[in-house]
Amino acid sequence: MTAQEDAVLMQKTPSSAANRRRRFWRHLSKAPISAWIGIVIVLAYMFVALFAPWIAPHGETEVVGGQYDPWGEQFLLGTDQLGRDMLSRMIYGARNTISVALMTTSIAFIIGTGLGLLAATVGGWIDQLLSRIVDVIMAIPQLIFALLLLSIFGTSIISLVLIIAVLDSTRLFRVSRSVALNVTVLDFVEAARLQGEGTLWIMTREILPNILAPIIAEFGMRFCFVFLTIAALSFLGLGIQPPTADWGSMVRENATLINYSDITPLLPAGAIALLTIGVNFIVDWFLHITSGLKE
């Protein structure tokens, strides 16, 4: 076969990237209505988070009215205990809460998955040491452990992100190590070892691509748990600190309105619940299409 014929054949043969895109759109077209609901919810939240400064009618910390002004034409969702517009605070809260949760989950994903792959690939005393450390950390309730560490190291955004990421990485460690152990015993991994490939190569090129589906699904689940943990810490006063808008702290700041049959404090709580439901819908759909099950 000539070089020209090779070029023509390569042009006619779709690339792997094109095949992946085609499979993605095929799966998306066949997605159940629950998955579409989840996608719409997540995209709406992402849009609000990205364009918060242009969508919000007032500034994040701007005092524009009286204390606890009622819902009306001027303030659609009323004002909080300092006279700040609740709608604007809700919009900015989406950007702050989601960005912190996403950053925390990403760091936890890198730490947990990396150490889990290392433990499964190397084995021996490294596996035992890492597993026992993870067991000790997981033996302590996460919220209580986070409260203890935040009271020691402070409640800055950096401390909050790093502490929650380290604590949550233990869950990703257990999942990645478990699925990686099933891959390390396969023939192609043994062949890579016999060829003299290094540990990092085997982890990233041989094992990781074959366990991505459950790891990505777990990433979505961990995002929900991290999101709820940060909101809970903010509600308790040790999460994202004022005057930064955060849905968890907004529930605490306006909780007194419940005594007057005002549902305003339930709005940020509802926003947290709705995003969690949307992400879970997408994760359920992703697990279904990657499991190989058919209708």
Portion in beta strands: under 5%
Question: What is the string of SSEs from the N terminus onward?
Answer: HHHHHHHHHHHHH
Mean pLDDT: 83
Helix content: over 70%
CATH class type: Mainly Alpha
CATH architecture field: Orthogonal Bundle
Q: Outline the biggest β-sheet.
A: none
Radius of gyration: 24 Å
Class by SSE composition:
mainly alpha
State the low-pLDDT regions, or none.
1-14
What is the overall number of helices? 13
Question: What's the short story on this structure?
Answer:
The protein is mostly helical and 295 residues long. It has helices at 3-12, 16-29, 33-50, 52-55, 86-122, 124-139, 142-153, 157-184, 187-194, 199-207, 212-235, 247-253, 266-291.
Task: Explain how this protein is built.
This protein is an all-alpha fold and 295 residues long. It has a single domain, classed as MetI-like (MetI-like fold), CATH 1.10.3720. Helix content is 72%, strand content 0%. It has 13 helices and no strands. It has helices at residues 3-12, 16-29, 33-50, 52-55, 86-122, 124-139, 142-153, 157-184, 187-194, 199-207, 212-235, 247-253, 266-291. Helix 9 (187-194) runs antiparallel to helix 10 (199-207) and helix 12 (247-253) packs antiparallel against helix 13 (266-291). The two termini are 44 Å apart. The relative contact order is 0.13. Mean pLDDT is 83; it is low at 1-14.
